[in-house]
Amino acid sequence: MQDQQKLIKNATGAKIMVVGDMMLDTFIYGDVERISPESPVPVLAIKSEERMLGGAGNVVANLCALGLKPLTFCITGNDAQGQAVLDIMKNLGADIAGVVKDESRPTTMKTRYLARHQHLLRTDYERTHALPIDIETAIFKGIEKALGDVKSIILSDYGKGVLTKTLIEKIIVAAKSKKIPVLVDPKGKDYSIYKGADYVTPNRKELAEATASSSLKSDAEITAAAKSLLQSSGIGCVIATRSEEGMSVIDAKGTILHLPTQAREVFDVAGAGDTVIATIAAALAGGADIESAARLANTAAGIAVSKVGTTPVYQNELMDALSNVQTGGCRISPLADEKAALEQVRKWQAQGLKVGFTNGCFDIVHKGHVTYLDEARRHCDRLIVALNHDKSVKILKGPTRPINDEQARAAVIGALASVDMVVLFGATVAGADNTPCAVIESLRPDIFFKGGDYTIDQLPEAKIVHGYGGEVALMGLQDGYSTTNIIAKSAGKTAA
């Protein structure tokens, strides 16, 4: 089997074309404490709002998170929602030269209202008629010009009108002429419109509808349906996603592969299909065969469904998960950059989970650390540990520290059952702020834990936490355990 980490590294910077239905997903979070006096409906007191790319946009977000360069061909309306889509894609680093404004429709926007973990309502603002001929022509001309550097093409079909039968056919023919693989996330029952595509990625429900199958529960039933689809549609390979059951790969050459899920926990399957097709495209760009690409995508899907909402899978998350698989582990590494951490914290809080936060160097983890973290975890639903990075530790502890580098320390802390996420923080030069205040301000955990002999007025973090309505909990440390003592004992000395 090919080296999957190497495949992802090889794919970094590759250009992947994404054509399809762009959407703006809006999540409005709040609390319900009363029923309206006007009618028997709950009143949502709005606390926060979050916007992200949906539909083909989620494919774009996943490609960017994996380190690739998506070329986006889609439409928006001439409206504020369309500008929001463009701004998000610019911030992600996606190429938006292929985005065309269609005056005949608004930007598709789906708005979800949530009270804690309860989904109250979804509203859709959209028009789904087929593209006007002039816009379809303009989009295809842009696609033709951009094909030279493209490693693969993803058609993300959500049935909103962008991928007309004519445009799909033109794209596949043009791709074939340049030997560029085409991957399709399909919509509807008629897959003959995708004839000539190399890969399609239906979920189980979509595969059942396309083959008029009443039941697709077993591997044998999935295989039979996929073979039927291959014969009737002229497609090269079916990659069927099966939610918590993993995925199946069946191609016209006789390959049959059933992969169990890599997920430790399944919170939300929304957006996992976008992660799958983006990861397969990335793997192919890195030189993967279909088996290796599918295994890589299955690992990425396992990460995606362990999150809440349409959150992309980042390259470092995938690399860490692959390291766990290669060493026989099953736990996805919780080390996250601040952006990924912020997204996950908001999802946890939207579920109604209480998020705790603590920090430290944790240079040589000992019983005192483990006991402290276990106790903190008992007071929250999810625990984040902010770990001083190596330069920060040197500033605090001196030039001979840390004993273990930040990656080793993060791996050990992250392996503890009490810890759900690890983030790095700290100053890089002496005299700069070496507290986790900036991280706390960004993540806004519900409760901040601090161990040791402190009072609340001695903690700069406390003012920030109390400022947004959070809690501060002071906790004692177990006597007789310290990293300094361990180092001194190892050197045959007694710590002062």
Automatic annotation (TrEMBL):
Record region (Ribokinase): 1-333
Gene3D superfamilies, sorted: 3.40.1190.20, HUPs
Coiled coil: none
GO cellular component, one term: cytosol
A Pfam family: CTP_transf_like
Active site, UniProt feature: D274
Sample GO molecular function, one term: phosphotransferase activity, alcohol group as acceptor
InterPro entries in alphabetical order: Bifunc_HldE (IPR023030), Cyt_trans-like (IPR004821), PfkB_dom (IPR011611), RfaE_dom_I (IPR011913), RfaE_dom_II (IPR011914), Ribokinase-like (IPR029056), Rossmann-like_a/b/a_fold (IPR014729)
Start and end residues of each Cytidyltransferase-like domain: 357-463
Binding site for ATP: N203, R204, K205, E206
Region listing for Cytidylyltransferase, in residue ranges: 357-496
Signal sequence annotation: none
Catalytic activity, reaction form: D-glycero-beta-D-manno-heptose 7-phosphate + ATP = D-glycero-beta-D-manno-heptose 1,7-bisphosphate + ADP + H(+); D-glycero-beta-D-manno-heptose 1-phosphate + ATP + H(+) = ADP-D-glycero-beta-D-manno-heptose + diphosphate
PANTHER family attached to this UniProt entry: BIFUNCTIONAL PROTEIN HLDE
Described purpose of this protein according to its UniProt entry: Catalyzes the ADP transfer from ATP to D-glycero-beta-D-manno-heptose 1-phosphate, yielding ADP-D-glycero-beta-D-manno-heptose.
Name this polypeptide is given: Bifunctional protein HldE
Organism: Micavibrio aeruginosavorus
